[in-house]
Fold this protein.
Amino acid sequence: MKKQAVVINPKDNVATVVADISANSIVHFFIDQAEHALTLLEDIPLGHKIAIQEIQAGENIVKYAESIGAATELIQPGRHVHVHNMESLRGRKDK
């Protein structure tokens, strides 16, 4: 099995892809020692994040076991996680 995405911490709800990957591709990754796979719902560019579990609107996006922002809409597993469906909560004086 070729690893196509990286999960940094078991608490993460996103993985980072290590290549450009097309929609409908099956992506393999590890959480601790357990292998997981999911089907991408859209094209994902190198270095971008994918949801590895359902993330509800308003729920934290977790990478490195830390919140890196919040979902602005429901994000299904296999979807691209980026500025179009999340907002940063860091460095904001209003949050």
